[in-house]
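Ticket #4471: structure output looks truncated?

Reporter: J.K.
Steps to reproduce: submitted the chain below (80 residues) through the standard prediction queue, then opened the result file.
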Amino acid sequence: MSAIGQAIGRHIDVEEIPPETAQQELAGIMPGVVIDMLLAAWAAAKGQPAFVTDTVFQLTGAQPRSFSDWAVEHAHEFMM
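Returned output as attached by the reporter:
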């Protein structure tokens, strides 16, 4: 179950789409070179652990929080 799904107590299906479909769907939102760069980066990162830094703390002085914690705090925004 996704972090948002857990936060709202519902199962959310996540469907992977082919790069060609992503390019078509994103074409009106961002330039093609950006789409290509993002798709290449996501493909290279697939199955790899996330790169973690202390940048949030360095910039804000506050401890970073997990995406799951953020999703719980914002669950009301995902309720339909």
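Triage note (M.O.): checked the attachment and the full token line is present. The chain has a mean pLDDT of 92.
Status: closed, working as intended.
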